[in-house]
Each structure stands twice: as structure tokens, then as C-alpha cells.
Amino acid sequence: MFKIIVMTLFLMVASQTSLVASDGCFSEEKITEAIKSLNDFYGDVPASVNCKKEEKSEVEKIICENNFLQLMDELDTKAHVYAVENATKSEVDHKTLVDQDWIESSRNKCTSVLCLCQAFMMHTNDNKGGDSPYFSFLTPSVE
Does the predicted model carry a pTM greater than 0.85? Predict the structure, then answer.
């Protein structure tokens, strides 16, 4: 619950700054940098949404119509594979591993760009922790 409150407050404040795109998502540059940092080992991991397919759910349509959400989806999928391989200490099939439970219980419940941004941010942070481009903005500072 604390994560959701902090994230909501972050998005409310950050949407007024240059850190966040005009539609409420995080900076494209930070997301792209994070994707590039994973590409050496996870470049073959596809995004969970295939925007080229004809039939799409309503959530997939929202993602495919928004470049930031497409990048967040790509990063999130790579981060999930990274987390599974780290936890199991074994390689998994990069082409087929998706977090179907999370997709059904969280991502697919969204009906807006902001909700999807929050869902991707939380899931990526859970998978990447301190290496997530969103991490420092969603955790309280200890000063």
C-alpha cells in the first residue's frame, strides 16, 4: 500500500516536471538507457505486447498507441527475465517467459495510461530493485 501511495504522489509531482512525459510516463531517455543496459544478455527478450498483431485487447491497444508504454513494456519484460534467472541461477527461454500472473492481476486491470505507467513502474522495480530507472523516484530518501 505504501508503494502505491508513494508512486501516486511521485506521478502527481513528477508530471509537473521534465522527468515525466506529457502523458504521465517516465522519461523516454531513462527507459531507453535501462533497456540498453540489459541488451547484452537480454536483447532477444521480446516485449510482452506484440503491437504488429491484428487482434489486441483494450490494454494492448493502449500500450501500442503510446511509445513510452511500449518502452516500459519492453524494459519490464527484460527485467522479469533477469529477475527469474537471478533467482533460479539458471537460464530460461527468453522468447516465451512472461509473467502471466502479473499481466492478468495487474496490467490487464488498467484502463488508462497513468495506471499502466504505475503498473509497469512497480513491476519493474520489483524485478530490478535499485537498478530500475524508476527506483530512486519511488523510494523515500534517507538523508
Answer: no
